[in-house]
Design goal:
110 residues; 3 helices; 3 strands; 16% strand
């Protein structure tokens, strides 16, 4: 991971944290993934329950929104960025949140 990606991750993380958006938001239940997509109506990090899989929770990331937020924060901080660095920052955030979400589910099942 490049230094720029690390900076962008920090900026993205801080912006989401300040806005109370670091935790997945439940957006509903559906019979498969068709209802929920990556659009501006979905929060940056969300989950839904899949009735076709016995109510299994599905974690999702609104990548276009996360990338836009990352670009905004980079512009405010005068941090040079390219699409690859933005993608890596969003991927790191996704990996971090996914791991925490999984751990929470495993704890809840105990």
């Amino acid at each position: 991971m490049t230094e720029t990606s690390k900076q962008l991750f920090g900026l993205l993380f801080n912006r989401l944290n300040e806005g109370g958006q670091l935790f997945p938001v439940w957006v509903g239940a559906s019979d498969g993934p068709g209802k929920f997509g990556e659009d501006e109506d979905c929060p940056p990090i969300y989950f839904w329950t899949d009735r076709s899989r016995d109510g299994a929770p599905v974690l999702a990331f609104n990548r276009p929104l996360l990338e836009r937020i990352c670009r905004e924060e980079a512009g405010r901080a005068s941090v040079y960025f390219d699409d690859e660095a933005i993608g890596k920052a969003v991927a790191l955030l996704s990996d971090s949140i996914s791991g925490a979400f999984l751990e929470t589910l495993l704890e809840a099942r105990k």
